């Protein structure tokens, strides 16, 4: 097969159906940009889980005088010095516990003022209204129930709270958003495939006399199909290149520069360039193979000339 003939036919086909070719490029670019974005979103959620689950604490809040008067869990009175020492000793004996940090009422009041100093409630609070607590870091965050079952309801303990529950809700929401992005991606892929099929069929129909002559003179099916398949593949590859450029520009100007989310949201450990660059070959391969396979499927009926 002469490469010059195939290349000339590709150029003719792309120019002849310029509007539909442009629609294919845009739809493939958008759908694959969403595809790459959803893959990066999955990596982001996994990275955030590993980062934050390693830092979560189980907080054991101790009863104060105010709790003893109003909270049924503290009906036996405010925590005593002996109870605090016993709780700490029991925590340090547990194999699931990594470290134990004590927070006094003054420290809790200071931290509250730092975080919520502008709220109206902050001006009315006093240190003696705050709760003492133990902040427990676990070797395995999944085993927080061991701490809960051992200390919930114990004398001097007002409540046991696990930060992992709050993070789980956040990651569940992020997971739903990721699946929503994937749903839009699948819709866009379906639109792109339909556009590719229609574009190839229109192109084949407009050149049906040429393909008929080629078939009559003994040209093989692959020889006839090749220009049409390559047209679709080239259009898809252009769209894939646009999708790759979108991910690269997003990482460069939104995450690391320009908007600089990594600086404005320092609590989020964003994925780096290694995650982005590993997705680009997959996107380019999909942008080439998907249109080529769709074109091959659409052309089967046109070989029966």
TrEMBL record:
<dbReference type="GO" id="GO:0005886">
    <property type="term" value="C:plasma membrane"/>
</dbReference>
<comment type="subunit">
    <text>Forms a membrane-associated complex with FtsE.</text>
</comment>
<feature type="transmembrane region" description="Helical">
    <location>
        <begin position="280"/>
        <end position="299"/>
    </location>
</feature>
<dbReference type="InterPro" id="IPR003838">
    <property type="entry name" value="ABC3_permease_C"/>
</dbReference>
<keyword id="KW-1003">Cell membrane</keyword>
<comment type="similarity">
    <text>Belongs to the ABC-4 integral membrane protein family. FtsX subfamily.</text>
</comment>
<dbReference type="GO" id="GO:0051301">
    <property type="term" value="P:cell division"/>
</dbReference>
<protein>
    <recommendedName>
        <fullName>Cell division protein FtsX</fullName>
    </recommendedName>
</protein>
<feature type="domain" description="ABC3 transporter permease C-terminal">
    <location>
        <begin position="184"/>
        <end position="302"/>
    </location>
</feature>
<keyword id="KW-1133">Transmembrane helix</keyword>
<feature type="transmembrane region" description="Helical">
    <location>
        <begin position="221"/>
        <end position="249"/>
    </location>
</feature>
<feature type="domain" description="FtsX extracellular">
    <location>
        <begin position="56"/>
        <end position="160"/>
    </location>
</feature>
<keyword id="KW-0132">Cell division</keyword>
<dbReference type="Pfam" id="PF02687">
    <property type="entry name" value="FtsX"/>
</dbReference>
<dbReference type="InterPro" id="IPR047929">
    <property type="entry name" value="FtsX_actino"/>
</dbReference>
<dbReference type="InterPro" id="IPR004513">
    <property type="entry name" value="FtsX"/>
</dbReference>
<dbReference type="Pfam" id="PF18075">
    <property type="entry name" value="FtsX_ECD"/>
</dbReference>
<feature type="transmembrane region" description="Helical">
    <location>
        <begin position="179"/>
        <end position="200"/>
    </location>
</feature>
<keyword id="KW-0812">Transmembrane</keyword>
<keyword id="KW-0131">Cell cycle</keyword>
<comment type="function">
    <text>Part of the ABC transporter FtsEX involved in cellular division.</text>
</comment>
<keyword id="KW-0472">Membrane</keyword>
<dbReference type="InterPro" id="IPR040690">
    <property type="entry name" value="FtsX_ECD"/>
</dbReference>
<feature type="transmembrane region" description="Helical">
    <location>
        <begin position="21"/>
        <end position="41"/>
    </location>
</feature>
């Amino acid at each position: 097969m002469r490469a010059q003939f195939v290349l000339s036919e590709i150029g003719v086909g792309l120019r002849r159906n310029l509007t539909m070719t442009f629609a294919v490029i845009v739809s493939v670019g958008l759908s694959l940009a969403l595809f790459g974005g959803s893959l990066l979103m999955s990596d982001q959620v996994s990275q955030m889980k590993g980062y934050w689950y390693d830092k979560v604490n189980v907080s054991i809040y101790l009863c104060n005088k105010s709790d003893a008067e109003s909270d049924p869990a503290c009906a036996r009175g405010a925590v005593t010095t002996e109870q605090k020492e016993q709780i700490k000793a029991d925590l340090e004996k547990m194999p699931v516990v990594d470290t134990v940090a004590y927070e006094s009422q003054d420290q809790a009041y200071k931290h509250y003022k730092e975080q919520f100093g502008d709220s109206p409630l902050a001006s009315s609070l006093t240190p003696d209204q705050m709760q003492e607590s133990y902040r427990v870091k676990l070797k395995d965050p999944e085993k927080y129930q061991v701490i809960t079952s051992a200390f919930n309801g114990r004398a001097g303990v007002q409540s046991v709270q696990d930060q992992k529950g709050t993070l789980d809700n956040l990651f569940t929401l992020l997971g739903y958003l990721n699946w929503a992005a994937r749903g839009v991606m699948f819709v866009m892929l379906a639109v792109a495939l339909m556009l590719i099929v229609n574009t190839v069929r229109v192109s084949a129909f407009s050149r049906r006399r040429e393909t008929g002559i080629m078939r009559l003179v003994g040209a093989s099916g692959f020889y006839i199909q090749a220009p049409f398949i390559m047209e679709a593949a080239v259009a898809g590859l252009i769209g894939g290149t646009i999708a790759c450029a979108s991910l690269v520009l997003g990482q460069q100007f939104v995450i690391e520069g320009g908007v600089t989310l990594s600086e404005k949201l320092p609590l989020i450990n964003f994925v780096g360039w290694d995650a982005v660059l590993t997705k680009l070959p997959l996107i380019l391969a999909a942008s080439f193979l998907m249109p080529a396979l769709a074109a091959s499927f659409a052309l089967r009926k046109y070989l029966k000339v």
